[in-house]
Amino acid sequence: ADGLNTRAVAAGKEYFGSATDNGELTDTAYVTGLSNTADFGQITPGNAMKWDTIEPSRGTFSYTKGDAIVALAQKNGQKVRCHTLVWYSQLPSWVKTGGFDNATLISILKNHITEEVTHFKGQCLHWDVANEALNEDGTYRSNVFYDTIGPAYLPIAFATAALADPDAKLYYNDYNIESAGAKSTAAQNIVKLVQSYGAKIDGVGMQAHFIVGSTPSQAAQTTNINAFVALGVEVAITELDIRTTTPATAAAVTQQAKDYAATVGACKAVAKCVGFTIWDYTDKYSWIPSVFSGQGAALPWDADLVKKAEVYDAILNAW
Ligand code: XIL
């Protein structure tokens, strides 16, 4: 059947997908939509594989939520982007404020990655090994890993993940790296850093949490994707949503449809842009209103699980 994933695959991409979360999986109408592989060939767990869920206390691993999402994807025949191993947020306080020295924190980091990647071995098309390591000006974001280990925490993380699952594609993932600028350059430098250590990095994820009307142009996004590809890595659009002031005006929805099409067009234009994920598919479960007050209506399906025809069709026809 025709749909977002069908069109993306016809354009040579590996998938069009959506994020989801465990609390949503009891909503049967929602799950029916998510499981429609004409639209979604891939799922990303929105929270289930983050450190605070997986290893809430040192050495205690909890995979129930991650397993539930992988099981749904496998039942549907969908790929999984596993998200995320090393991030400053949703990181339990035992790691964040544990006061560990360099050698101890390296061993905690390696143990976490080895345990989690081994658990999901063979089930993850991609792993977001490191998430949001950068500030807006391109400097490294201060976090317990950077502050204790230095930038080498990144190649250490990638090398450790590669050992545990040699077949998963290993990604660096961040936001505001979707067009040229200091942060995109810094993300390219992370690729080079990991490569310079002889560690494997396969891809860069552009989160693409955009705002209606101030989204980078298709040409700017295409040029930027090509700059990453030139380093020998692939690219995926990993968390696209395009928010606006709520309630959305008709004009905003029209602009939003164009903005979605621009990112699809950029990914379509570059063979090594391999996949495309929206950060859930319905406004019913979008993270936006809880974080950006007064903003929302960011996804192609409304809060009643009804397709916004203008936005959906713009995505469909941009492939
Ligand atoms: C968000 C989830 O969607 C929310 O449910 C959670 O409360 C906070 O995290 N960048 C990322 C994602 O890489 O992990 C974030 O997901 C959204 C921003």
Automatic annotation (TrEMBL):
Chief location category: secreted
The alphabetized UniProt keywords are:
Carbohydrate metabolism, Glycosidase, Hydrolase, Polysaccharide degradation, Secreted, Signal, Xylan degradation
Q: One MF term from GO for this chain?
A: endo-1,4-beta-xylanase activity
Taxonomic lineage of the native organism: Eukaryota, Fungi, Dikarya, Ascomycota, Pezizomycotina
Q: Where in the cell is it found?
A: Secreted
The EC designation for this entry is 3.2.1.8
Q: Which residues form the active site?
A: 239 (nucleophile)
Its UniProt entry gives the catalysed reaction(s) as: Endohydrolysis of (1->4)-beta-D-xylosidic linkages in xylans
Q: Which organism is it from?
A: Pleomassaria siparia CBS 279.74
What name does UniProt use for this protein?
Answer: Beta-xylanase
To which pathway does this protein belong?
Glycan degradation; xylan degradation
Q: Which family does it belong to?
A: Belongs to the glycosyl hydrolase 10 (cellulase F) family.
Full-protein residues shown here are 26 to 344 of 432
Q: Which residue numbers delimit the GH10 domain?
A: 5-318
Biological process, per Gene Ontology: xylan catabolic process
State a GO cellular component annotated for this protein. Answer: extracellular region
